[in-house]
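Late entry, evening session. Most of the bench is empty. Finally got around to the prediction I had been postponing all week. Sequence below, unchanged from the version circulated by S.P.
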Amino acid sequence: MLTHDLAVSIGGLILTIGLLFAARPLIRRLGPMHRANAPHRLSIAATLPLDRTRKLTLVQVDGHHALILTGGASDQLFPWPAPDNMFRNAMTDATTHREDIA
């Protein structure tokens, strides 16, 4: 009787572990990071290796792009292209400066 209970318990444990391993791909697919309707806020648009140690990466975050230079003495972040308001402000400053000179 004791061996029968032990065999049933071990069989149930093996079955439970087997079901967990079988369901693992489904759980990963339905996990919070892989929802079909979830917006992807961060993505890597392109990567360009410059030399053995340095790499230039174009990333997109919420529709904005940035260049990241990694692998040198220090990593650097460059917004690219410049936001529209930066360009407008620079043009306004240049026009204002030109009017002051004339």
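Two things to note before I forget:
Helices lie at 2-29, 84-101.
The first helix runs from residue 2 to 29.
Will write this up properly tomorrow.
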